[in-house]
Amino acid sequence: MKEGQHEVFLEKAGIEALEGAIAQLRRNGAKSVMILACQGESWRPQTLSPLLQSLGLPVFGGIFPSIIHGGRRLSRGTLVIGFPDHFDVAIVSHLSQGAGVETQLQGLAPMLERAGSLITLVDGLSSNLETFVERLYEAVGVRTTVVGGGAGYLDLVPRPCLLSGSGMIEDAALLVAMPCGIDRGIAHGWKKLEGPFLVTRSHGNVLEELNFSGAFQTYRKLVEAHSGRSFDHEDFFAISKTYPLGIESIDGEFLVRDPIKQTGDTLVCVGEVPQNATLYLLKGESPTLIASAGQAASDALATRQRRLRESAPVGYTALVFDCISRVLFLDEAFADEIRAIEHALPGAERLYGALSIGEIASSRGGVIELMNKSTLVSLF
Amino acid sequence: MQHTLKYVSIQHELGMAIGMALRLHPMLSAFSRVTLRRLGLAAIHFHFVQRHDDLSPADGSAGNPTLTHYLSVPHNASMTPIPDLPALDGNRVECAYRLEHGIEADSHFYSFNLGRIGIITLQRMQTGLEQPIIELLKPLMARLGVSCRASLEHEELLVAVAARHKAEETILFQLRHDDLTHLPNRRQLMQTLEEMRATEIANRSLGALLFLDLDRFKMVNDTLGHSVGDRLLVEVARKLERVVGERGIVHRLSGDEFVILLGNLGGDLEQARSRVDHLLEEIRAEFSDSMIAGEHRLHVTPSTGIELFPDGDCSAEQILRRADTAMYQAKLAGLNSSVYYDRQLSSDLERRREIEKDLQSALKDTAQFELHYQTQHDLDGSCIGAEALLRWHRPGRELLATDLFVSIAEETGLMLDLGRWVIDRACEDIRQLQTRALPPGFRRISINISAVQFNHADFVETLLGAIERHEVDARLVAIELTESALIRNSHGAAAKMALLHEHGIEVAVDDFGTGYSSLAYLSQLPVETIKIDQSFVRDIDSDSGNQAIVGTIIALGRALDIDLIAEGVETESERATLQRIGCTQYQGFLFSRPVPLATLIDAWLGNQCA
User: How many CB pairs under 8 A join A and B?
Assistant: First the structure.
């Protein structure tokens, strides 16, 4: 454990307990604090914001459907982590309005230039998240590694979910500039089932036509044939969580898009589906998903080995953003996914993270991507 | 099939991303965002030829034009070194290369010609692009080049439209503003005043027009030059704007005349006057400090005339004229004064203003002026000289007394121009006299010189210049100065008079006894002649008081060896009395009224050529 780096897990939410935990971390030398809180703790802005605003040290974090701590997925509790370094934390607000994001990022240029890497936490239910990650890449370029995920509540109702020195906020992004480098691995494990299809009409995250036919009808025909289940008899997401869509990259990899809702003949996805993209219907199986999570961890470690030229790195921290929909798909088997990650990182001093609504990471090619149904393992 | 669909979809998506904005930068940014994502690129760089003129001709014969970096996405990728590019030969630039070292090691670069206006370079990390993708990009980049050219032409059009718009704005501005100070001009003033007058009438409220004229500004222009004068005017304009602020609008009418318009002063006359008075106090305070104009620190003050409006059916033009009249009255009250327009007091002033304006016009067309000459005689009645007297024939108006319009010319600074004309014309006339056989005792033609004129820096130069230009014998020239002209600047006067004396020009003191009458200067200055004022001469034959005064003057002249001429001699009895008490030279109606040059020659100087 690095000197001064500590963490405190609070099983039950309470402003005094949180205040005490942060005070303890400060006594131990913490100069920055990260808070990962479960939505089950019901933190409220009225009580939490005044504390966050009065801390006088950089603070960042979010409310997530679940968090990962102690090798387990937890639906209750708040994890407070102290860091011995002072991290610059900036807020980019009004993401849904889109237009002002570029200007805000331009104003942050000096901080972004200094950053070795960035942890980016966003309100996972903000619209225009793609615009944000696009503009973020335009600002930081290929030399700054970006990792992060979307905070928010599983009921998909927008409300304050990001924790910052300005209090609990929503429709925003937190940019945490870390002086050190971050090594990341990303994987999803979803496999090609049918395709390719040409996206002949779409608007943002609403997929309207595939191969010039209604998107839902095309999707329904394929999924019902493969699953033997019917959308007429079951909830849409109960079936669709097993059959996401994949936007094919030029290298043949898939950027997963989760269809969460059907409206008429259209599919509403988490994340944009560009018109003229080539799209595949994907299928998930527990073993491949679990294996992919382990692969993400292994890839992150391999990157670290190459960067630090160490054959067996030890003493690092693993921060995981794993999509909440993988839990919904894997259910009890999700514990195996955490074990797979832990298993791939024998030298990790600690491992924690959150089950996120969307994952954000620099791709191998450079651009920052907003992903669904993926596992992001970052090491620092 | 699946590769084909992939290539088609890439081509389609990138094609749709071209030309999504009219302006070049947003258009390329939008295209870059889609292309970065779709092709998994790390960066895109654009380099353009510096100017369209640099484009090589169609045959590609010209050399490689200079490329400059225009845009990179992401923005901080602009430092990425672009290797030497192949010649932009107007046809094809497609090259691929890979960097193996340095910060961008393991990057693949693909450059494409953008229709001879520049180059786009795609940067990809780790793995390169497949050849079919490179092939499909070629026609896309040609299209992008066309779009870039269209955007550039659009931007040039925008620049041209903006330039035209700006030019129109400039013309409109110039039409309504003064070039020097950029303040609204007379045209704008009259429009604003008309609108303000209508508003005040509608609101039953009062407005005020303050007409400011800088005191002694003409002297600044005449002595320090127009460049300094202009700087001073600009400084005054800024000062007035500062003081007035949001309360009103400052205009420059012409020359050193400024107008302040104040609106919405309320319906109560006393309150309105009080607000105007408050502003006047602030202006006075502001002008109490000197101003910097070039290398000079100058102190100027304004004379201000004020008219409150509306007043009956008074038009905008009348409001301005009234304030102008009040300003004139302020001038008479002394420096830095302000006066409200008063109908009863103003009629005489309006007449003076009318004369001033006529005088200004007349100085542009000097045919209205004429010199008449009144002879001077000795004891024997012989003509020994003549005094040049100015006459002004105003077209369609009555003949004005010389004293009246000369005093207006002195007050308004027009005297210098008028005086120069008098000197020039007198010298021209003297030149005519020189060509004739003048009587043996004829000594000079006297020219009246005002104090303003005499004290001006270039007076001697002007006089000697005229004498030289007309080839006049300077000994035939005398100048007549009033006592006040000498007293005001006796040190400078002495130097000038000494210089004139050296050239043989006589100096006479006019109207002696009516002014300051400091006897000291008479002994110190090179004065040749004293002219005894006609007020002492009138009825001297019966007025023992005048006899005593004139006797004293004569004694003084004798003691200082100064000649004496009595002015205004109208009767033989007066002349005889003057002779009896010792004055032997005379001028007045007894001998001759002032007459034109031709009459002078015919009647007194013998109509013969020399």
Answer: 85
Could you tell me the residue range of the domain that residue A242 belongs to?
Answer: 191-283
Residue B80 pLDDT class (50, 70, 90 cuts): low
A201/A203 Cα distance (integer angstroms) = 7
CB contact under 8 A, A134 and B12: no
pLDDT in tens, B531-543: 998 888 988 988 8
Q: Which residue of B has its CA nearest to A144?
A: B76
Q: Distance between alpha carbon B11 and the CA centroid of its chain, in Å?
A: 67
Name beta bridge partners: B383: B377
Q: Shortest CA distance to B473 belongs to which of B530, B523, B435?
A: B435
Q: Which residue of B has its CA nearest to A105?
A: B75
Whole-angstrom distance, CA of residue B338 vs CA of residue B284: 10
CB A380 within 8 A of CB A182: yes
| Number of domains comprising chain A | 2
Q: Are residues A152 and A55 in the same domain?
A: yes
Q: Domain residue spans in chain B?
A: 1-49+67-159, 186-341, 351-608
Asked if the Cβ–Cβ distance from B74 to A196 is below 8 Å, we say: no
Percent residues over pLDDT 90 in chain A: 83
Average pLDDT value for residue range A237-246: 92
Q: What is the nearest CA distance from B323 to chain A, expressed in angstroms? A: 55
> Is the pLDDT score of B57 beyond 50?
no
Residue B397 near residue B440, CB atoms below 8 Å: no
**CB proximity B25 to A under 8 Å:** no
Name the CATH topology of B351-608: TIM Barrel (3.20.20)
CB-based contact B6 A140, cutoff 8 Å? no
User: Is there a contact between B133 and A250 if contact means CB atoms under 8 Å apart?
Assistant: yes
Could you give the 3-state DSSP secondary structure of residue B44?
strand
- The per-residue DSSP string of B157-179 comes to HHHHHHHHHHHHHHHHHHHHB-T
When pLDDT is cut at 50, 70 and 90, the band that residue B93 belongs to is low
pLDDT > 60? residue B516: no
Widest pairwise Cα distance in chain A = 63
| Residue B40 to residue A137, Cβ atoms within 8 A | no
Q: What are the residues facing B339 on neighbouring strands? A: B305
**Chain A: nearest CA to B139, how far in angstroms?**
18
Q: Spell out which residues of chain B touch residue A143, defining contact as CB-CB under 8 Å.
A: 76, 103
DSSP codes of every residue in B541-610: TT-HHHHHHHHHHHHHHHHHT-EEEE----SHHHHHHHHHTT---EESTTT---EEHHHHIIIII-S-B-
Task: Give the architecture (CATH level 2) of B1-49+67-159.
Answer: 2-Layer Sandwich (3.30)
User: What interface predicted TM-score (ipTM) does this complex get?
Assistant: 0.89
Do A276 and A289 lie in a common domain?
no
Q: Which CATH architecture has domain B186-341?
A: 2-Layer Sandwich (3.30)
Cα B235 to its chain centre, rounded Å, is 12
Helix H or strand E segment including B144: helix B131-176
Q: How many helices (H) and strands (E) does chain A have?
A: 10, 25
Q: Which residue of A has its CA nearest to B9?
A: A276
Nearest CB to A365; choose among B2, B74, B125: B125
